[in-house]
Automatic annotation (TrEMBL):
PROSITE patterns: HTH_LACI_2. The keyword Transcription regulation applies. It comes from Rugosimonospora acidiphila. Pfam families: LacI (PF00356), Peripla_BP_3 (PF13377). InterPro entries: HTH_LacI, LacI/GalR-like_sensor, Lambda_DNA-bd_dom_sf, Peripla_BP_I. SMART domains: HTH_LACI. Residues 12-66 form the HTH lacI-type domain. One of its GO terms (molecular function) is DNA binding. This is LacI family DNA-binding transcriptional regulator. It comes from the Bacteria. The keyword Transcription regulation applies. Keywords: DNA-binding, Transcription, Transcription regulation.
Amino acid sequence: MIPRRSQRTGVITILDVARHAGVAPSTVSYVLSGKRTISAGTRARVLASIRTLNYHPHAGARALASNRANVIALVLPLRAGMHVPVVMQFAVSVVTTAREFDQDVLLMTADEGPDGLRRMDASALVDGLILMDVELNDARIPLLCELDRPSVLIGFPAEPDGLTCVDLDFYRAGQVCVEHLARLGHREVALIGAPRAVYERGTGFARRTMTGFLDLAATLNLAADAGPCEEDPVAVEQRVGEVLARRPSLTGLVVHNEAVVDQLLAALLAHGRRVPEDVSVVAICPDGLALRATPALTSVLIPAEEVGTQAVRLLMRKLAGEAVPDSSLLPPRLTVRDSTAAAPLPAR
């Protein structure tokens, strides 16, 4: 017999499960918490009742039983220059993977810096933290090292020693783009980067991409230009015009600013440059964005799903008391599509 739902709350309670299984409420609690050994038969009967009644333990009850909240915090401050659709791919991956571990995710989007971490630590609402939008000299890092709660960073500060970090190797990503263009014979290249605010606050992934791009271009003796680009169409057209004015023989472009991809392609056409006949374009972006562009873009994948999954798994291992590697840099993967071709022959 399936009991009626609680008249007060309208939901199945632990008392309902106990009555259905023919055991004491404390027995149900012990099955859920694992704090006492319960015979296999009784445990099976309780679990069957839980499934039959579709019972979901209250989060507070779970926390009291295990000294865990079964909640992790994703600290994702929404700041100027962030491309929210891509950022949310990371967030979705974190949430989806956390559910595999029966964890809920508390999303913190306010730009509170160390104060937000301090408030979260004092509340005891979460068991661990995942931090995004990591800066090279991130003000949150010193406090993070003092907290008892384990943490994982999606991104790398300038000094990652003693921290658990995971991300795409953006320095190498910048190099991979240059290598591809150089193999195709391009000798003048430029990087269209993130908005200026992203560089000014020292965001690690943007700085590392630009450094990798410029370092390898210098090693290969390529003429190179690199700088930020704002996200509105007027700014994109202006930036493209400035680059072409400085380097009229430019034939290779790398774009590391997902929000301006379509505007960049339109601006090149407006300046009489066809892709890839006159200018080859490589993007660092998700595959979906690269495939929707016309022409489809040769790109280095931003592996949001893989990075988010790894971050959660590393945090779960730390919560379990396991040793984990300090750093996990994912190698960049370049996919060649329709937007790159051999450099055009110089005009006679």
